[in-house]
């Protein structure tokens, strides 16, 4: 079973060489970290838990690169889990892709069927379902970054959340903590953009209020502040899920690696989308 890319040539370049060049340019962008990722190490500090954006690379790629540079400086994980929102309203409430491979112009990445099975056994919140993932971009756009940093020596687990309620997010985070036996061998990433289609300064104001709650690992405050300030995050459920996972696995040191909007990276600040790269460490 192989899941074909849905947004190659749209959110990111559609050929291997052009995609490699595009990802490199994200790292070296003025809004990126300004350096290429290191070769991951077999030993060293555990990988952080990340929040990473998922728009077109020309807009969000430089912000995402900050998190992936951080991943490259740590111990190589055996598996990368990406939790993303379901934008299209198809499929099941919380979907695990059952197995096989995901394909991008950089090649195929193998799914960690054993870990997928443990997650499915850990909670009834999960369904094994391909349909939820068929057109969804929030998880897919993370995959070329994963491949660029780790090559073919890493497995993958995609989790797509249509139900982003606090209750569902807490259960996903709990099940992740139960199923991931060795967190130092697994990188967990929540895929989300932040406020959508507001002027740059207004989007930043709303987003920084929400980010302050994220950095405090305050899930109740995170949901409450989103409502109060009108922050229109698309992946708030995945963010809450990985906060819960981080708390249960003692990843309680949080850092904002980078915030920027599409106005910063694209130039038009009249109506923007906000992006943040955030890391949680032990």
Describe the structure.
The chain is α/β, with parallel strands linked by helices. The protein has a single domain (2-201, 232-281), classed as LigB-like (Protocatechuate 4,5-dioxygenase, Chain B, 3-Layer(aba) Sandwich). Helix content is 38%, strand content 22%. The chain contains nine helices and twelve strands. The chain has helices at residues 16-28, 57-72, 113-122, 143-150, 166-179, 200-215, 219-229, 236-248, 262-266, and strands at 2-3, 49-52, 79-85, 94-96, 101-104, 107-110, 127-128, 155-161, 186-191, 196-198, 253-261, 272-281. Strands 2, 3, 4, 7, 8, 9, 10, 11 and 12 form a nine-stranded mixed sheet that branches. A hairpin with a 2-residue loop joins strand 5 and strand 6 (107-110). It is globular.
Q: Beta-sheet strand percentage?
A: 15-25%
The residue ranges in which pLDDT falls below 50 over 5 or more consecutive positions are none
Helix content: 25-40%
- The CATH topology is what? Protocatechuate 4,5-dioxygenase, Chain B
| Biggest β-sheet strands, sense, barrel | 9 strands, mixed
DSSP summary, beta strand count: 12
């Amino acid at each position: 079973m192989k899941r074909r890319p849905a947004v190659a040539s749209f959110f990111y370049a559609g050929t291997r060489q052009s995609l490699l060049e595009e990802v490199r340019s994200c790292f070296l962008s003025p809004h990126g970290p300004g350096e290429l990722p290191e070769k991951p190490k077999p030993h060293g500090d555990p990988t952080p838990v990340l929040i990473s954006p998922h728009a077109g690379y020309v807009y969000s790629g430089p912000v995402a690169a900050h998190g992936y540079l951080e991943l490259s400086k740590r111990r190589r994980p055996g598996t990368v889990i990406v939790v993303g929102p379901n934008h299209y309203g198809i499929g099941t409430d919380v979907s695990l892709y059952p197995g096989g491979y995901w394909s991008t112009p950089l090649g195929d990445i193998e799914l960690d069927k054993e870990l997928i099975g443990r997650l499915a056994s850990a909670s009834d919140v999960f369904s094994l379902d391909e349909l939820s993932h068929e057109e969804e971009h929030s998880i897919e756009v993370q995959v070329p970054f994963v491949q660029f940093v780790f090559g073919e020596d890493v497995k993958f687990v995609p989790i797509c959340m249509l139900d982003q309620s606090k209750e569902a997010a807490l259960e996903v985070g709990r099940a992740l903590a139960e199923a991931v036996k060795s967190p130092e061998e697994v990188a967990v990433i929540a895929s989300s953009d932040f406020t959508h289609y507001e002027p740059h300064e207004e989007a930043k104001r709303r987003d920084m209020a929400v980010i302050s709650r994220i950095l405090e690992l305050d899930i109740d405050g995170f949901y409450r502040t989103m409502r109060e300030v009108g922050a229109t995050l698309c992946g708030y459920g995945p963010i809450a899920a990985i906060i819960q996972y981080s708390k249960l696995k003692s990843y309680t040191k949080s850092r904002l690696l980078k915030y920027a909007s599409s106005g910063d990276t694209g130039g038009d600040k009249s109506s923007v989308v906000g992006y943040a790269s955030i890391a949680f460490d032990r």
